[in-house]
Structure formats: C-alpha cells, structure tokens
Specification:
This is DUF2786 domain-containing protein. By secondary structure, this protein is mainly alpha-helical. It has 16 helices and three strands. The protein has helices spanning about 5-35, 55-75, 75-85, 95-115, 120-130, 135-150, 160-165, 180-185, 190-205, 230-250, 255-280, 300-310, 330-355, 370-400, 405-425, 440-450, and strands at about 290-295, 315-320, 325-330. A three-stranded antiparallel β-sheet has the order 1-3-2, with helices on both faces.
C-alpha cells in the first residue's frame, strides 16, 4: 500500500532494522562473554546480564573445584560465592540435578584417590568425623558405598568387606542425580548446608597425605581358597568371643577370671597350632598390617594399652595421633588376638575407671580428667607387666609340651619377620612419654589392672 511521502512505512522499516541490529549486537556480546569466561570470572551464571550458556556439567565441576581450592586457601569470600552459585543452580530442577551429579562424581573420584594413597573405608570415615562432624562421616560412608558399586565382591579383600559391613555402607538412594537432595532431606539440611558439607568432605579427601598401604585395593584381591586352618581360625575366634562377652558382662571377678582364662588358653594353643603347621608344611605365612581405631577421650593411654597387648601377641603397634588410629603389624591370627584382647581390656578399664570416683584436689578443683588420664596410663602399664609374666609361664609350658628344639627357631623367625616388616613400614618414629600427674588415678588404675582378666592369647616365647 502506498502512503503519501512514504513516511510511515519508512519509519517502520527503520525501527525493524534497528531491533535486528540490537539483537545481533547483544548476541555477539554474549558470545564474547562466553569465550572470555574463566573459572575466576565474577559472573559465571550471568547474574548481571544474559547467562553465558545453559548450566552445563563442566561449569558445575569448575565451581566445585574453585570451592575446594578456596577452602584450602581459606578464602572465605570466594568460598561463599562458589557455594552460593552451586546452591542456586539455574534452570530449576535440571540445574540442581547437574550440580548433584557433579558433586557425587567428585566425591567418588576423591574417595578412589584416597584409597590409592593408602586410606581404607574405616580410616576415611573416622577422619571425617574427627575433622568435622558425624554428619560428614555419614556423607563419607555413602560416597564409599557408591564407589564400591564398581567392584565385584570376589575382588574385594575380606578386611575391606568387614569394614563396609561395620559401616553399613550401602546405596540407599534411587538415583545418583537426586542423591545430595535426598541426603539433605534425610539429614534435615537445607540446600546451602548440603553444598557446604560436600565441599568440606571433598577438601578433606583431597588433602589427606599418603600413608602406608594396608592390604590390596578393591579389585586387586583374589578369592582365597578355603583351608582347614582358616576354618579353624573362625571356630576358635567364635568361641573366644563368646567367652569374652560373658567375662565382660559379669559382675563377679572370679567368674570373669575363669572365663577369660579359658579364652587365653584357647588362643595360646591356637598360636602353637599355627607355628607347628608352618614348621611341618613349610607354609609361607607373612606379617601383615591392620589399623585399629583409637577414639577420644584419653587417646594416649588407650594407645599404650594397645601397644602392650600387641607386644604380648608378638605384634608391634604405632599410633597416628592426628587421624585416630594405630597400625598394628603381625601375623594375621596374632592380629585377631590383639584386637580381641585390647577391646575386652578396654571395656574393663572403662568400667573400672567410671566406677572409681576422683576426689577434689586441695584447692577444691575437679580432677576428673587428670585422674582418668593417670588411671588409664597406670592400668595399661600394669597390664603390660601382667601380660609379660603370663607370656613367660605359658611359653614355658607349651614349649615343653611341643618340643623346644623344633619350636623355638620357628618362633624366633616369626618375631624377626614382624620386626623387619615393622621397621620397613616405619623407619622413623617419635617416642612419646606417658603423662601421669594424678597420684590417686595412678594407684587406682594399677589396682584395677591387678583385678582385670587377661583377655586374649599371650605370645608363646620372646627373645
């Protein structure tokens, strides 16, 4: 249609061209911003303009990496910014699922990396609880369970399987893309708290140092043939556990003594059976390592108790204070005995300690902590004396019955093998001196140790 002068049509055509030019200019600007964006940019989600792109897994991964680095550098402002961006993931439910998937993927990768540096499932959960809270420990358990889906049970060492069972590590959620969301609901946390907890666990995993490898990694264990000695070990341990459970529950010292004396006899003779079997069949049993958790409070005297029990069972122990565990080196059956005896004696010590009430000092101050610290230290040292004496008696009796000429060289060789394995793993150690500053606690602990039942097997002979 023609209009006089063509003014209206010309104006409309000009406006249309300007709108198209503005749109092309905006698109070009957005493209330049996408090309120039880096993990350090201040507006990765386009908060002050058009977003650089739909929220992609790569962006979530970059933000998670930035958050972990900020946590490591203690850069609170950067950490808060990254966590806020992750919590407010755009694109609604789709963006939240992208972040969820990226978080779980990062956790699985860091768990695997920690395993390669020597950490086992129980170690990781204990470290999370000690460094942060039990909530962080629960997140670590789930990450471990999710990572274990990639391994056949037949290729997982029995020690790992036992730890996973004790931790109740299982995949309880329906879909990985929903896991952080449903985990937060289960823990009663909002989205920001879930993100913060996950970043803290990731930072812990990324910064754990390399430690001694204990046993094969998942996927590296081979199915062990079932042998009569292995079956015998399980039957013996079952009987000993039953005896010790009764001994720990009774309030009558005489009954506890009788029950634990029987347990001690079973384990002592069991060790002789192993030694004789090795001497007659040429079996090449070798020392291995195992970690035993040492929990607060009063870790130092508890560690001392484990040490004297380990030595009585021809094992050696060293404490990693920061991470709350001791590594015990010895032959497998001896490690079982060490754990059984240590656990049982610790139950007795704790019960005796809490029943013995400390008094106030001359200034009227509460002495509970110093009393209990001294109590457990004295208890451990006295138990060590009793174990050493019992070791000599049991060793003499069993050596005579079996034959010293054939038995003593084998026992000496096993002790040498344990010492060599220990020295190889821990060439440099720092010695700690027991801290005792409460005379009443020392005396009470020593008296309680005299009453304690020796739960477990003693070494048959020592050099």
């Amino acid at each position: 249609m023609w209009f006089p002068g063509g003014g209206w049509a010309e104006t409309m055509g000009k406006n249309s061209r300007e709108r198209h030019q503005a749109k092309r200019k905006a698109d070009a600007g957005a493209a330049r911003r996408r090309a120039a964006w880096t993990p350090g940019s201040q507006d990765p989600l386009g908060s002050f303009g058009p977003p650089p792109a739909p929220f992609q897994p790569q962006l979530a991964e970059q933000l998670i990496d930035q958050a972990v680095r900020a946590q490591d550098r203690r850069n609170a402002a950067e950490l808060d910014r990254c966590r806020a961006l992750l919590a407010a993931a755009p694109d609604g439910a789709t963006g939240i699922q992208v972040v969820n998937r990226a978080l779980l993927t990062a956790l699985l990768a860091q768990v695997e990396s920690a395993w390669l540096r020597g950490w086992q499932p129980a170690d990781l959960v204990r470290a999370a609880r000690r460094e942060y809270t039990t909530r962080h420990g629960r997140l670590m358990v789930d990450a471990i369970a999710a990572r274990m889906r990639g391994y056949s049970r037949a290729t997982v060492d029995q020690a790992w399987q036992s730890q996973l069972t004790a931790l109740d590590a299982r995949v309880w959620w329906e879909h990985d893309d929903l896991y952080p969301t449903v985990w937060g609901e289960r823990q009663g946390l909002d989205r920001a708290e879930v993100i913060a907890t996950a970043i803290e666990v990731l930072h812990l995993l990324a910064t754990l140092p390399r430690i001694q490898q204990v046993g094969p990694m998942p996927g590296g264990a081979t199915p062990a043939a079932s042998t009569p000695p292995a079956d015998l070990d399980q039957r013996m341990l079952h009987r000993v556990r039953a005896l010790l459970a009764k001994a720990e529950s009774t309030d009558f010292p005489e009954e506890a003594d009788a029950l634990t004396a029987k347990a001690q006899e079973l384990m002592a003779r069991h060790r002789i059976d192993h030694v004789v079997l090795a001497a007659t069949t040429g079996a090449q049993d070798q020392p291995v390592s195992r970690r035993v958790g040492i929990d607060n409070p009063y870790e130092a005297p508890k560690t001392l108790l484990l040490q004297v029990v380990a030595e009585a069972n021809s094992c050696r122990a060293v404490w990693a204070k920061r991470y709350g565990f001791s590594t015990v080196v010895g032959f497998p059956a001896d490690l079982d005995s060490t754990e059984l005896m240590f656990t049982s004696l610790l139950v007795q010590a704790t019960r005796a300690m809490t029943q013995t009430k400390p008094s106030l000092d001359r200034y009227g101050r509460n002495t509970t902590r110093s009393f209990r610290q001294s109590f457990l230290t004295s208890y451990a040292m006295r138990i060590g004396e009793r174990l050493k004496a019992a070791t000599e008696v049991v060793g003499q009796e069993l050596t005579v019955s079996v034959g010293a000429v054939a038995l003593l060289p084998v026992l000496a060789a096993r002790d040498d093998a344990v010492r060599d394995a220990f020295d190889k793993q821990f060439p440099e150690l720092t010695q700690r001196v027991a801290n005792v500053n409460n005379r009443e606690g020392w005396a009470s602990g020593r008296a309680a140790a005299d009453w304690a039942s020796l739960h477990g097997r003693q070494a048959v002979a020592r050099e």
